Amino acid sequence: MKTTFTAADEEFRAKVREFFEVDYPADIKVKLARGESLSKQDYQRSEQAMASRGWSAPGWPEEYGGPGWSLVQRYIFDEELERAGAANVVPMGLLYLGPVLYTFGNEEQKSRWLDDILQGRTFWAQGYSEPNSGSDLASLQCKARRDGDQYIVTGEKIWTSYAQHADWIFCLVRTDPDSTRHDGISFLCIDMQSPGVQVHPIISIDGKHHVNRVSFDEVPVPIGNRVGEEGKGWHYSTYLLSHERTSYAHVGEKKQQLKRLRELAESAPGPCGSMLDDPMFAARLGRAEIDVLTLEYTTLRVLASVAGGKAPGDESSILKIMATEAAQAISTLYLELAGQYGVACFEDAVTPQWALDVGFPEYATSGPARYFYDRSQSIYGGTNEIQRNLIAKRVLGL
Length: 398
Ligand SMILES: Cc1cc2nc3c(=O)[nH]c(=O)nc-3n(C[C@H](O)[C@H](O)[C@H](O)COP(=O)(O)OP(=O)(O)OC[C@H]3O[C@@H](n4cnc5c(N)ncnc54)[C@H](O)[C@@H]3O)c2cc1C
Description:
four-stranded mixed β-sheet; binds flavin-adenine dinucleotide; 48% helix; alpha+beta; four-stranded antiparallel β-sheet
């Protein structure tokens, strides 16, 4: 695998860097640096800024609006986005649903939804998990019964990220009431404004509103909103999940965080000298740096197989474990660095500005909230235990 960049790659990097430094909304970068939650408008402004250059969906084929970049260019783009501290795209539309629609959707669905996703005009949520179906997703109970030219959907989804902002939700629903497992599940796109849809907020341990419970009470959904064949939704959902698991790497962001962590640790007071003089802290920081390097190479491997025309394969499970464990290790180091300042700073209720005004170090305002939220990284997208089961079965053949 080639790991050096050509002059043309470096030229491309400079163009992307300039965009994120000059043209990308600066206030969004400031909010993110302080650990503040972004609004729906912020997410959409961010995606629209990238879409204005045709850069919102680097992985999409050109015929659907992708920029036609090489694997290396895509990698450079991600690295520069995260280096600048810009917002990653909301994955549900651009990373998860988009590939399902252009692969399995009909022409009407493609022309109806793809461009709005590409241009950052619609916000999508993902309705897979239910109160009693998470890891064992095939046991899901949300039902859709046929009634003329529509389905009537009744049931519940839970842990639905950013459903409070969503215009649409794609859901797995059981269309065959006699089926119990993978067969008889269909993939439906539901307008969040439909009568009978309700969003119930769940506030997570970091004090923020990331997730929700979404209830469906006799919600009418046109049959034309079903992607692919009735009863074959499981097939489309597993295709989507492999794309989902490759989206967690965020190597550029991790490299930036580690660089900053090393700089901060050099001046932050530790038990004897600076935090970097603490051999335990320094060893864990070094370990995290090595882990991110190995993550970088694994990401390139997965991207290479995708660029070769394959769906991300079983390597995506390996990537998911490595990426999420590295993220947790990094936010643990930030929490340690924040030390006694961290305690007061982890809720949205305690605004970052307040903490800065009373003289807390800037890094303490986002570190603890991030630490708490990052615990969920090894749960969402299929828990890391489940990923290990997949590796055991499919990679190691155990
Ligand atoms: C922050 C956050 C955001 C999320 N966003 C979304 C979203 O937008 N859309 C969506 O559909 N879902 C979302 N989820 C849900 C997520 O996908 C599920 O939480 C996850 O799949 C685990 O399911 P569960 O919570 O029901 O836990 P369970 O499946 O009940 O698992 C509980 C524990 O048992 C372990 N376990 C279960 N089965 C096995 C097994 N066979 N072998 C070994 N260990 C096992 C698990 O690893 C876990 O530790 C989100 C979750 C979180 C935390």
